[in-house]
């Protein structure tokens, strides 16, 4: 069942529920994947035009687009931005820009 709210702000306020639903979908593709939320919703300084940044670390990167389609199909109205990457890309790139206090594992 898809999650629907009345406004962008409602989605942003409920980012943990959105992230949990994304994790459920991702785990159907890769049971070992890690799902995180980062950015303005974690910092608490989001606005009505913000999105929910979701970081997915998977060893099944070849299924990236299938994951994206499944997530966006289920959460069609949610303001989400998906970052589906390998552990290596996280270690070599994303880790430099995401502060430890601004990321939550789901």
From TrEMBL:
The keyword Transferase applies. The keyword Hydrolase does not apply. Residues 20-98 form the Polymerase nucleotidyl transferase domain. Pfam families: NTP_transf_2 (PF01909). It comes from the Archaea. Coiled coil: none annotated. Keywords: Transferase. GO terms for molecular function: nucleotidyltransferase activity. This is Nucleotidyltransferase domain-containing protein. It comes from Thermoproteota archaeon.
């Amino acid at each position: 069942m898809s999650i629907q709210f009345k406004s962008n702000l409602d989605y942003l306020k409920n980012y943990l529920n959105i992230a949990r639903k994304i994790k459920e979908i991702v785990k159907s593709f890769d049971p070992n994947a890690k799902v995180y939320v980062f950015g303005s919703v974690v910092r608490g300084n989001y606005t009505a035009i913000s999105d929910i940044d979701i970081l997915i670390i998977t060893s099944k990167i070849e299924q990236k687009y299938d994951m994206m389609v499944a997530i966006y199909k289920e959460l069609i109205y949610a303001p989400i931005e998906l970052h589906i990457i390998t552990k290596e890309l996280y270690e070599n790139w994303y880790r430099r820009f995401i502060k430890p206090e601004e990321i939550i594992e789901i």
